[in-house]
Amino acid sequence: MRKVEVVAYDARWVDCFREEADQIKAVLGDNLVAIHHIGSTSVPGLPAKPIIDIMPVVKEMEAVDPCKEAMETLGYEAKGEFGIPGRRYFRKGGDERTHHVHIFEEGSPAAIRHLAFRDYLREHSDAAKAYGTLKQNLARQFPHDMQAYIEGKHHFVTELEQKAVTWYTNLRQ
Known about the structure:
CATH superfamily: Beta Polymerase, domain 2
Distance between the termini: 45 Å
InterPro entries: GrpB/CoaE, NT_sf
Protein name: GrpB family protein
Number of strands: 5
Number of domains: 1
Shape: globular
Strand content: 15-25%
Largest sheet: 5 strands, mixed
Number of helices: 5
Pfam families: GrpB (PF04229)
Helix content: 40-55%
Low-confidence stretches: none
CATH class: Alpha Beta
Organism: Thalassobacillus devorans
Mean pLDDT: 97
Strand order of the largest sheet: 1-2-5-4-3
CATH architecture: 2-Layer Sandwich
CATH topology: Beta Polymerase, domain 2
Structural class: alpha+beta
């Protein structure tokens, strides 16, 4: 059973991302367009589950599937789309998870949503603080129930994502 653990922001998460991203870049090769640090560990000051979320963006999703064995060599477990159409998801560390990799094709609405959410939290400290407080409270309330923790965040995240995508889209026009 996975324990729900939300910890204070750790500046070393940036280095953990960079180290892992370099290895993933080598696996994905010329198909890789960009690789992003996403999720709560990518937002300075935000409390987070200590799991590094990495989002490679690729030219062609079909070229990712043959990379499965190389990702497994890096310690990742391939999970396919894992509930999000158009994604390839990998996780590392089993129940003591350390990394999640979410691969999307260039232009994917899901990729844009992840970047918008991250950037919105980076630019809006009030939203980041509210999100961090919610996560800490839920982790205390549901220390051994990951599903309840996720469900407890759902409404807040959904609302914030909509606001973030609008903000992000307007910035790029």
